[in-house]
Amino acid sequence: MSINRIEQRMAELQSKKEKAFITYITAGLPNMEATEEIIKAQKGYTDVIELGIPFSDPIADGPVIQQASYEALLGGASLKKTFELMSKLRSEGCEQPILFMMYYNTVVNYGVQAFAKKCQECGVDGLIIPDLPMEEQEDMLAALKGDDTTILIQLVSPVSAARIPEILDGARGFVYCVSAMGVTGQAADFHREVINYLKDVKSKSQIPVMMGFGIRTAEDVAPMKDIIDGAIVGSHFINLMRENSFKPEAAKEYVQNFKKELNAL
Amino acid sequence: MNSKAYYGEYGGQYVSESLMNTLAEIDKAFEEAIRDPEFIKQYHYYLKEYVGRETPLYLAERLSEKYGTKIYLKREDLNHTGAHKINNVIGQILLAKRMGKTKVIAETGAGQHGVATATGAALFNMECTVYMGKEDVERQALNVMRMEMLGAKVVPVVSGSNTLKDATNEAIRTWAKTAEDTFYIIGSAVGPHPYPKMVKEFQAVISREAKRQHMEKEGRLPDVVMACVGGGSNSIGMFADFIDEKGVELIGIEAAGKGIDTQEHAASMAKGYPGILHGMRSYLLQDEDGNVQLAHSISAGLDYPGVGPEHAYLHDTGRAKYVPITDTEAMDALMELTQVEGIIPAIESAHAMAYAFKKAKEMTPDQSMIVCLSGRGDKDVNTISNYLAGKGYLN
């Protein structure tokens, strides 16, 4: 396949001058069936879905996703089951851009080459691996090379500074800007120099710039609306799903409103 | 790939992007510091005047006679705060000050590294927060008290298994948020580069002294050097100056818990395989999906599912050998050392003693071994008394 679903969606949004809306859910919370329904419910509103692969030691995540990950593991969630879900969705004609957010040990344990091949077969469009900085990406990039189905998404942080050009060199899909220092799911107390930082990344990036970490409503990104190309909601979406007993209707309502408000900013 | 960060295929820097500049700063500051005679002078000043170094290399006479070979004990248990951990804390905290940091954080399992860090923080007037699994906070109440007396804040970590690996995760998370003014003092020879290298550098004083002391007493190098391995800080310090001495056999002793054929052990090299945890690639106890498994050992200090990357490398290259010792073997050795030499060792160090007794049987009277007695057993009296009472143990 020559066109990547994420890149295709980004191009469409750009031509419509719309912002991207990205959500995160932990695969298998509370079970794989619920995850499947929550994915399907977002059709037409969410541009990219991040599926978190639960891991025993999620060092880049805050309490909400840690707990989600822990419960999903107890419920029997795994990478293999998530691959099965992906195959099922794709065989049913689901064209929703979906990426995996996961820790590198899960990849290494599966085998880097075998993992890349499996992602390509199952139609996993991208990967976010927070404990794999550019210095350690050689094996992963080599394994993904030659097939555009699955791309590696690059992350930058407010302290990346001089590292930004090198991180962005060859980056694909979109660049994920961590808006607050540290871990996922903090309150919206954005880093003091966040505006300057986002401007800096935007000025250096050839690809869309997304802001993640600590976003709840479309209003949260209003101060940066002229800089960023989209927003990512993780911990808040999980909390919301929990409060609504993981009902797909609640997911649909939230993403529908968020996307509408985001476009209206 | 930063080849400097690797020992063969092990090591690296598997951390989030927000820590990469911090690691680069530490690496630069560390490399400058260890080349600065003033820094080295200061480090050795505190080791001598505050920690009480050098520690003796004691010929355990009665044990040597019993086993028919010379058994030397490197007495790290005689250091201030009761173990080797303080050597590294002094080094890292001096580095933290040099870098202008005002706060330090640390992870701790049994509490030894936490106590050492709290001690160093009191000495150098720095704010100290120690992350400790909730389970460990409950079973190591005495060390929690010591840390609090020293002015540290102890944060019970409720996440995952509520033990050392989770405390480490939480320390890394906090660090990622606060690295501007906070230095993370890692206590074991683990973590992302340059930590394994720093810990080795600051623990190498153990083997530097031991090598010279053995030379003075015997006029030659020892035949065997051994130490227990959890993350591997006392062992890498004990091995450091002997690695290039090919005639010296190096042996690391892993905790086999209830046996390496059970599910309850901490023998990452005997039973694990390479993976990624706490910023490094090394041997790791993990399940078929790559989730990290809980380690088990009667000794909290060895209760860790991974091992330092240089040990993984020494293992693969065959330069060092790693052997497992069970809870029972360690406790028997602990009682033997106590009753024959009048030294109550930490349960961690007792693992090394247990293998020393096995190894001694294949050695001759004119040969000699050095065993690193990494810590004293005061902290373990509760565990020991429960074990002796047949109640099993707190762990």
List its salient traits:
heterodimer; A: 265 residues; alpha/beta; TIM Barrel; nine-stranded parallel beta sheet; 11 helices; B: 395 residues; Rossmann fold; six-stranded mixed beta sheet; four-stranded antiparallel beta sheet; 44% helix
What does this structure look like?
The complex is a heterodimer of chains A (265) and B (395). Chain A is α/β, with parallel strands linked by helices and 265 residues long. Chain A has one domain (5-258): Aldolase class I (TIM Barrel, Alpha-Beta Barrel), CATH 3.20.20.70. Chain A contains 11 helices and 9 strands. Chain A has helices at residues 5-16, 32-41, 63-74, 79-91, 104-110, 112-122, 138-144, 164-168, 194-204, 235-243, 248-264, and strands at 20-26, 48-52, 98-101, 126-128, 151-152, 154-156, 175-178, 209-212, 230-233. In chain A, strands 5-4-3-2-1-9-8-7-6 form a 9-stranded parallel beta sheet. In chain A, β6, α8 and β7 form a beta-alpha-beta unit. Chain A starts with a helix and ends with a helix. With 395 residues, chain B is of the alpha/beta class. Chain B has 2 domains: 14-46 and 85-199, Rossmann fold; 52-83 and 204-388, Rossmann fold. Chain B is 44% helix and 19% strand. Chain B has 16 helices and 14 strands. Chain B has helices spanning 17-33, 37-51, 61-67, 85-98, 112-123, 134-139, 141-149, 164-178, 195-203, 205-218, 233-239, 268-271, 309-317, 327-341, 347-360, 381-388; strands at residues 6-7, 10-14, 57-59, 70-75, 103-108, 127-133, 153-157, 182-184, 224-229, 249-257, 273-277, 279-284, 320-326, 368-373. In chain B, the strands form 3 sheets. In chain B, strands 3-4-14-9-10-13 form a 6-stranded mixed beta sheet, sandwiched between helices. The longest helix of chain B has 17 residues, at 17-33. The radius of gyration of chain B is 19 Å and the shape is globular. Chain B starts with 5 loop residues before the first strand and ends in a 7-residue tail after the last helix. The model of chain B has no long low-confidence stretch (mean pLDDT 95). Classes of the chains: A alpha/beta (265), B alpha/beta (395). The A-B interface holds A 55-60, 62-63, 66, 70, 73, 78-80, 103-110, 130-133, 135-136, 138, 155-161, 163, 167, 178, 181-183 and B 1-2, 5, 12-18, 20-22, 159-160, 165-166, 169, 172-174, 176-179, 274-279, 281, 284, 286, 288-292.
